[in-house]
């Protein structure tokens, strides 16, 4: 038994001081001191104890698959909360604890007390314990071009590299030709996949580069891989990225049936620090507040399963979603880049390839392929981050600097060129577009109540109101009726969202009820590019008639306006080749003329109308010329 000399009085201050030089003296009323000593002992790098997201954690190797709906490799390093038993074991190994034994009238060594371990775990902060951002299984590069490629914990970046031997990356100053060769190497890896265009290929490379440096980015877009038919290689492309960054398959989830289930899955994965999440074969439109938050926020907050408290975790993970004709819905469509494949054959799974086992090839050449991704980013940084002439991808500016701009600089297409297809295939955007089209036709830029819209839509005594009814039923149907609350919530959600140059904004209160109106962003609508925000009523009716193939257009009866209004119209027509006052009057409704008289429509707006209609008449005249 290890003993130390017993003092005449165990409260002897000098004795306590001497004991603390050898270890921790355990006695009642001093648990805070014992806990402080334990924390300092565990701050040693050999302990493997870190702090992350307000909890003490350690790095472990996953040994279970299909846990909580997550399929994960059984050799993937993940981050796991530390248990009190682990604290006791590691603290006892690294530190010495003494306790006075009345039976032998002496001191002896003891294990770290359980109450000390629990107290340490439940503290709000640990100033001596190193912070762990993430565990990486491949080298990485910082935003200043510094390559991190040494196994173990890195104090500067607060990341842990989980590998032993790696082909060293050239740390000298790199040039553009180095980046070009590196990009070509990555393109060759996936050259047999049927990407529909260069942008789709670039989006895949962007996903790979993102996964290598996601730990340091405050936000990042999500990535999709889709095709018109199964067997095109969607899941395989995502798995290649996972094999390159971790030498393991990705953590896979299926699309959950509801938002609550998705919250649970995402929270579990984020707590574990998985570098890549693959939602495989999504069969329904992808949407949800949880994914929106993950894409643009640095933290994600959710309730811990089985407990009443919440947990805050980092969102530093790369997300890939696969599916046939993948649809991204709502606000999430502005946060996605999609690599689309199209094999152009009936049975793509029967195709043959030069590389029979591309996953094996990727693993065998993993180090050179990962280094290629790092070289593209480092060479761009070493060259002073040259301007590539691209507009920023809002909310993802740092991702632009480290991923998108280096790729384009190296000769790749802009991965953000895939965004247009994502947004145009968004069913929510389509619904909004139909609503705005019907809204502008009936109300122009006037303030309107939800109740009035429903009344007009249900009366449906003309084509414009029928269009409005159809649009409202799609977004707020309650059986065969239109639910006013549901419609109000949807309009409120879409407030200020721009679609086809228009957006919904709040009007004033009418009888203490909120009204809404349309606002033009680009000064026009539906081809009337300079009409100051809306189309004159009669012009819109004429446009609707022109869209009906074979339908006869009803002549518009000219309205006799006030002399002052005629003078304004004459001034607007002055100098125009085809436009006259009477023709311009025929394009306007009685309400338009009232707005002109009241001053709600400016002389500049009237002039823009006149010029536009003059151009249209000029085109018609040319078309009639034999």
Describe the structure.
The protein is of the alpha/beta class and 626 residues long. It has four domains: 119 residues, no CATH class; 241 residues, 3-Layer(aba) Sandwich (Rossmann fold); 96 residues; 74 residues, no CATH class. It is built from 22 helices and 23 strands. The strands form eight sheets. Strands 14-15-18-13-19 form a five-stranded parallel sheet. The radius of gyration is 33 Å and the shape is elongated. The N terminus is likely disordered.
CATH architecture of the largest domain: 3-Layer(aba) Sandwich
Gap between N and C termini: 115 Å
- How many runs of DSSP E, i.e. beta strands? 23
Main sheet properties: 5 strands, parallel
Percent of residues in helices: 40-55%
Structural class: alpha/beta
Main β-sheet, spatial strand arrangement? 14-15-18-13-19
Quick description:
This protein is α/β, with parallel strands linked by helices. It has 4 domains: 3-121, no CATH class; 176-345 and 354-424, Rossmann fold (3-Layer(aba) Sandwich); 426-521; 553-626, no CATH class. Helices cover 42% and strands 15% of the residues.
Which keywords apply here?
single chain; 626 residues; alpha/beta; Rossmann fold; five-stranded parallel β-sheet; four-stranded mixed β-sheet; 22 helices; 23 strands; 42% helix; elongated; disordered N terminus
What is the topology?
Layout: E1 3-4, H1 13-22, E2 24-26, H2 31-42, E3 50-51, E4 56-61, E5 77-81, H3 84-94, E6 97-101, E7 106-110, H4 114-121, E8 134-136, E9 140-141, E10 147-148, E11 152-154, E12 159-161, H5 176-189, H6 198-213, E13 222-227, H7 234-246, E14 251-253, H8 259-272, E15 276-279, H9 289-296, E16 299-303, E17 310-314, E18 318-324, E19 336-340, H10 358-364, H11 366-382, H12 397-409, H13 419-424, H14 427-443, H15 450-459, H16 463-476, E20 477-478, E21 481-482, H17 484-493, E22 502-510, E23 513-520, H18 537-547, H19 563-573, H20 581-587, H21 590-598, H22 603-624
Parallel strand pairs: 2-6, 8-12, 13-18, 13-19, 14-15, 15-18
Antiparallel strand pairs: 1-7, 3-4, 4-5, 6-7, 9-10, 11-12, 16-17, 20-21, 22-23
Helix pairs in contact: 2-3, 2-4, 3-4, 5-11, 6-7, 6-11, 6-12, 7-10, 11-12, 14-16, 15-16, 19-22
